[in-house]
Predict the 3D structure of the following.
Amino acid sequence: MGFNATEMLEIIETMEGYLSRNRPPEHIRRKLDIGYRIEKQNVFVFEIRPQWDQPKIYHQYDFAKATFIKRQLIWKIFWMRASLNWDNYPTKNPIKLLSDFVSVIEEDEHGCFKG
């Protein structure tokens, strides 16, 4: 089951704020950009890059995921390993707001999201 309309609006507002603060400058977005998508109870953050041998083809590479756990009213955070498996991101406290997920990505204390 997905998010209701109010939750969707809050998610979109939070994620658009993240993009406005973190997208690369306009002149390099053809070579590197970031975006997000919402699927069921998940919010994914990804890089957008052209294919190395066919630059007109673009691919999305997920690097962060937040999953909302309704029973506990918390967000679980995951990062994409080089093996293409999702791994729990170590957080000290439960993440109760999506804005806290965004803060974790921006701070990237453990170097998991941006290397």
User: Anything to note?
Assistant: The mean pLDDT is 95.
